[in-house]
Fold this protein.
Amino acid sequence: AAAALGEFLAAGSGELVVLVGCLKPSWQDPVRGFLRRLGAPVWAEASSGLREDPELRAGGRGTRVLRIGGVPSCRFWRDLESLPEVPVFSVAPNGLPGLARSSEVIAGVDWEAVSIPDGIRFAGLREGDSPPIAPEAQWVRALSMAVPAGALVFLGNSLPIREWNAFACREDRGLRCFANRGANGIDGTVSTFLGLAEGEPEAWLVAGDLTAIYDLAAPWPLQQMRPGNRRIVVLNNGGGMIFQSLPALTSAPERARALMENRHGLTFEGWAAMWGLRYRCARRPGDLLDLPPGDVVVEIPATAPFN
């Protein structure tokens, strides 16, 4: 496996970029050491545990791709389906390529045994993260700074994952991030979070409104769980706003777009009351701080102006 990866690194004249998806904890330090030796630009997702590493240079697109860990959620990975001329080599624990087109994949490797060849061309570096402009992206940035150091963070699904990867702060505070990615991850997101949060002193869920609605019954086992600060943060933008980006909807009638986006006017204070949970509606960044102990539903009207 080390030889196969070394051959991929040495072959071709394209510009290399590394995409790092979800990594199990035992992979994080070995992969970190390999990437530091390699020196390539890296797109590391929050669930990799490497996103905030200051020694890894942030990269964007390349003409050769090394993917490590789980399937990335970034748009570039999806675009690779229609870019067969871009060679892709994956090191994935499940041995699956994550693409429907031809690519190489191995299930594991001794990272220290991989030889780094000379003369590798690297993709360009990102100048820096884009500043968040939309209110929802600004709220995600504020959330990333409000979560206490060392906390468990669960991102689910779809838009919150992408917004956290793009806009969360880069300070390394030891957050342990997990995610259900894409449309496949909407069912049972709150339940998955509660399973991860059992026994954790501080755990935060960042989810969209439709994701929360899909799992309204999830809080039923809270009374059986050990004490801890569990914060269920709902970014309420009134529906599935990610569907606004679907090309097929751009020319659809307004009624069709409203139905596809599942627009609604619901709030989550009643949901919190149903399960006896504390509730806070965050209308400014300071509302994310000094939350009461225990289980709290924090609703963010994500389309409201960010103050």
